[in-house]
Amino acid sequence: MSAPAYKRILLKLSGEALMGEDSYGINRATIERIVAEIKEVVDLGVEVGVVIGGGNIFRGVAPAAAGMDRATADYMGMMATVMNALALQDAMRQIGLVSRVQSALTIEQVAEPYIRGKAIRYLEEGRVVIFGAGTGNPFFTTDTAAALRGMEINADIVLKATKVDGVYTDDPKTHPDAMRYKTLTFDEAIIRNLKVMDATALTLCRDQKLPICVFSIFKQGALKRVVLGEDEGTSVLP
């Protein structure tokens, strides 16, 4: 088997990825499958950090938050990500994958506070570190949290898991002739407004020369193929 192309990765999972075919919440079969894919990568000797979203439970900019104070709604969204992080940890525990949840909000009864040095030590020990509560600040997305944590833990790449197997010239659902980009530069992604990640996250990764790969978490084995450096998804490079 080929050697992994990366020693340490930051995996960005949306909350919606945990829903599976459900309309909200956490689909148990889906989370078990995602965790099994993460274990395959860990078994290759790759160190894995995970940033999880909360859109399957609550999102600060969603219609459910209409009329609410934006900061309050965003804090509610951050707590939803902690719930998802605990669900991920539980699913990992059941298959023998050791993980730690670190939260940017202080909720010591259920998660450790985020401490960069401890996170890096856990990764070096082969544990998966799940980062909850985004950046801990309102008005920032979990995309930005993924870029920030990726830089802080010295990840080799940020892997953004989506429902689509890469970045396309147009929406492949409405334009069947849309073509998948194999690679893009950060400037191309920003200028063409390709929605790889939000603008703040893209700019952070560009400035720190931290590559991104967008791939489908619903495509069996895609995460492992990305880690092995195979042609999977779309790579956004400095």
Task: Describe the 3D structure.
The protein is of the alpha/beta class and 238 residues long. It has a single domain (8-237), classed as 3-Layer(aba) Sandwich (Carbamate kinase). It contains seven helices and nine strands, in the order E-H-E-H-E-E-H-E-H-E-E-H-H-E-H-E. Strand 1 (8-13), helix 1 (28-42) and strand 2 form a beta-alpha-beta unit. It is globular.
Task: Assign a percent range to the helix content.
Answer: 25-40%
Tell me what the CATH architecture is.
3-Layer(aba) Sandwich
Silhouette: globular
Give the N-to-C terminal Cα separation: 28 Å
Main sheet: strand order:
4-3-5-2-1-6-8-9-7
How much of the sequence is in beta strands?
Answer: 15-25%
* CATH homologous superfamily label: Acetylglutamate kinase-like
Return the domain count.
Answer: 1
Low-pLDDT windows of residues = none
CATH fold-level assignment = Carbamate kinase
Please tell me the overall pLDDT.
93
Total beta strand runs: 9
* Radius of gyration from the alpha-carbon trace, in angstroms: 17 Å
